[in-house]
Every structure is written in structure tokens, then in C-alpha cells.
Amino acid sequence: MDAKKExxxxxxxxxxxxxxxxxxxxxxxDEIQEVADFLGDSLYLAQQAQSTDADVILFCGVNFMAExxxxxxxxxxxxxxxxxxTCSLAECLDATDCIQWKxxxxxxxxxxxxxxxxxxxxxxxxxxxxxxxxxxxxxxPKDATLLFAPDVNLGNWLNKTLGVNMxxxxxxxxVHHNYKLGKLMECMTLHPRAEVIAHPECPExxxxxxxxxxxxxGIINYAKKGSCDAFIVLTEVGVLRTLQMNxxxxxxxxxxxxxxxxxxMKRHSLDKAILxxxxxxxxxTMNEDIRLAAYxxxxxxxxxxx
Length: 306
Ligand code: 13P
Ligand code: SF4
Known about the structure:
Largest sheet: 4 strands, parallel
CATH topology of the largest domain: Rossmann fold
CATH architecture of the largest domain: 3-Layer(aba) Sandwich
Number of strands: 12
Structural class: alpha/beta
Strand content: 15-25%
Helix content: 40-55%
Bound molecules: 1,3-dihydroxyacetonephosphate, iron/sulfur cluster
Number of helices: 14
Mean pLDDT: 97
Oligomer: single chain
Number of domains: 3
Shape: globular
Strand order of the largest sheet: 2-1-3-4
CATH class of the largest domain: Alpha Beta
């Protein structure tokens, strides 16, 4: 048996021993995706975290995702393979700046993207992910001043798609914001029949060429069901495993020869997952008042997503 398989078997043994469920985002390394009980986008993983009857959740994603699991299911032990896996986008806004920003508007209604700090969630009216953002924004009160944080590209795309005029915080993701229009043009010229499928965290100049804009799961479903046999993929390369597995006969292209990767998602390894399950650490912990305040807008999102 090869070393990878041995480690994966050890992870499964430890997960059984501790009655642990393994949740993984599409952007983590393939070898971690392979051992997950549930692999998905941020909304799906939050839903799984809320409904699991396991005693322990091993969350292989970035910290705001593991914190969301704890907020939704505080009785569970939530552990992560590497607790330095932060999100560049979530780090673009802290709660103090957010409070000051909110105070500048009359009757503000803050819609926060799930990629934000727990403290920002506590002062948000509702949370959204890229898969439910259209629905969440549409459900916002019509008489309020709508604020959207922290992703400027997703916010602009929502404003344009829905014809609304939300005030938007100027944050971005270091991965998606760095796709270059010139590279997309070159790729479209090389593969003129390929459809462009993009995550809404990409800049507007890129999104205008997309045949489909959606969450990681949305992108995966679109490519699987679509009749086209070639796609230019504008999201983190971790999704390529599922795209190719679902449709081995289709072609998937990235626009950069070395596409930007989410280095934080890639911090998790099989060795770190073994150690986390063995020692039940590092654990996600949080103050109960903060958790309760962050729970409210998250619960509202999950209710509106049904
Ligand atoms: P999804 O909601 O599509 O999983 O996106 C999360 C994310 O971090 C994208 O960069
Ligand atoms: Fe955050 Fe960007 Fe990584 Fe998504 S890809 S987790 S937004 S840094």
C-alpha cells in the first residue's frame, strides 16, 4: 500500500473512533478531498455542519468556514488540521471598521458574505454565500439602505444582475481578483468553442465574458449538465478534480499556466489531519455571546435558502 493510502486509512480509522465527520471544501488538496465524508461549497458545508449527528467535525477549509460550523452546532467539537488557514477576503474587514461604515448610512441593512470574520457576522443583518446571494439580496427590505461586505466583485455583480444599488465594501480575494483579462482573451482565442465559467469573486472585466457565474457547486453542476464539451474555468484549481471526475470526456482549461491557488486551503495535509483527529486539536472555540449574535444572521440565511 502506498504512503498516501495508509495515511488516508488512518484518518478513516480515527474518524470512526471519535465518531467524526470530515467536511472538505473543493479548494483543499485532492488527497484531503478523497477522504472527506462531504465535499462541497461553503453553503453546503454549513448545512452539513448544522445537521450532522457526529460528535466531532474535522473541518478542512479556511477558518471562517470552521467557525461557521461551530456557530451553527456549538455542542460539537470542531477541529481543523491547520488553524492558520485564514481567508484573504475575510481579512479585508474588521468589526470596528464595519461598525463605523454602517453608522454612515440611514436605516442600514448589512448583507455580509460568509467569507467574513465572526465579529463581522455579529453586526450583520443577514449572511449570504455565492450560491444564495441573489435570493438573499432580493429578500432584503426595500426601504433600507443596503450594504454589502466584504467582496467588491460579488457586490458589483449583484448590483448589476439585480439592478440594485448596494453600498459595497472594497475587499477582494487574492485568488479570484488576480485573473487577468489579457490571459482570458488568449485562452478564448485558443479555445473559441469553450464556455467561460466563473466564480463571482472575479473582477467585473472578467465576469462580463462569462457564460455562467456561480458558486463552486454551481460551476460544477453547470459543466456536468451542459451540452458544451469544453470550459474555461475561472475559480480555484481544486474544483478541477470534481469537474474532470464528473465529465471525463470534457475539457477544462485554466487561463494561467500557473493559476493562482488559495494557499490557505492548501495548508491542510493528511499528516495534519491525522494529528488533529488523534489529539482532537486545534479546536475552534468562541465566546457564547459572540456565537449567539453571529448565529442570528446565519440562521436567517439558512432559512431563506430552503
Ligand atoms: P463557495 O461558496 O463557492 O464555496 O466559495 C467560497 C470561496 O471561498 C470562494 O473563494
Ligand atoms: Fe478566501 Fe479567496 Fe481562498 Fe476563497 S479562494 S477561501 S475567498 S482567499
